[in-house]
Amino acid sequence: MREVQAALVAIGGVIAVSPLISTPPIGPSRRRFVNAAALVETAETPPQLLARLKRIERAFGRRRGRRWDARVIDLDIILWSGGPWAGPGLTIPHVAFRARDFVLRPLAAIAPTWRDPLTGRTIRQLAALTG
């Protein structure tokens, strides 16, 4: 959990943070994961923010190349105030967020009325569908 706290400090511009929740892994990893959502204010474009998040992951010891494996930290952009966005290596909203309770539950704690720009549903509505 302290890695999450340290990552939030490294990200900066954090306006709100959800409670931290412990969840079982997806895929072959054996350890549980700690998940959270943060609302971040930044002037960066989505690709600039993603590049910075990946640098933070590397600084925390994350190594690419092993999908679904245990990792120290995994930072994703789930939604963006600019609406949908797509480019090489990045799609916003995150492609799988609507089906992931470990994303929606924390997100609902800090932005329950934020609307998915593709479905029009609020985060609270999406969370109710997965929970």
Structure in words:
- By secondary structure, this protein is α+β, with helices and mostly antiparallel strands.
- Helix content is 32%, strand content 15%.
- The chain has four helices and six strands; from the N terminus they run H-E-E-E-E-H-E-E-H-H.
- Helix 3 (101-110) packs antiparallel against helix 4 (123-130).
- The longest helix has 14 residues, at 46-59.
- The radius of gyration is 14 Å and the shape is globular.
- The mean pLDDT is 89.
Describe what is shown at a glance.
This protein has 131 residues and is an alpha+beta fold. 32% of the residues lie in helices and 15% in strands.
Keywords:
alpha+beta, 6 strands, 131 residues, two-stranded antiparallel sheet, single chain
Q: What's the SSE blueprint?
A:
Elements: H1 2-11, E1 14-17, E2 21-23, E3 33-35, E4 38-40, H2 46-59, E5 85-87, E6 90-92, H3 101-110, H4 123-130
